[in-house]
Amino acid sequence: MLKGAEVAARALGVRLQFVEARGPADFDRAFSDMTRARAGALTVLPSTMFFNERRRLVDLAAKNRLPAVYPSREFVDAGGLMSYGPDLADLFRRAATYVDKILKGAKPADLPVEQPTKFELVINLKTAKALGLTIPPSLLGRADEVIRVDGPAQLPRMARVRCSSPRRSPLRRNQSENCRGWGFYRRDAVLTLYPAPSRCA
Q1: Helix or strand run (H / E) with residue 2
Q2: Torsion over CA: 10, 138, 40, 191 (sign)
Q3: Containing domain of residue 76, as a range?
Q4: What CATH number is attached to the domain comprising 111?
């Protein structure tokens, strides 16, 4: 995964640096390293540990005014800027079909390994506003869901808007193609926070 990130960064002309975090105790140090490196943005790689600590990661990114891209929409629901990754609910539903086949007599070893087929881009405009960012309309048009701040007092403060633009499909074919529109990648380095494997004694 790290090699793939490096290849994508070179294709986009972005300088990428990696910051290691073995556990939640490393988060403060990791964000201090990002500040010293004058990071222009942050991307968080998939990890169960990061998922469980998503509120703290989102809070640290906001505190350090780092635009961040996360691997799943739950980070955005917690206040993160945006996410792009597999639709976890869809994965769970697809897992149920495997259970059904096994209960009907299929051998698990005979079932094919499937890759995720449904991905979603979720953007939080409230967080973008707090960071002083303007999300390009072209990117908003590709989003599966946009979390907005509605002005009228009688409306709910936060509203989720499901987008149905036909322009979403190119994002499925080539994620890196659309990353060029993310204006906050223009400053200095982009840092990637990744979970380091535990060392066995």
Answers
A1: helix 2-12
A2: negative
A3: 13-195
A4: 3.40.50
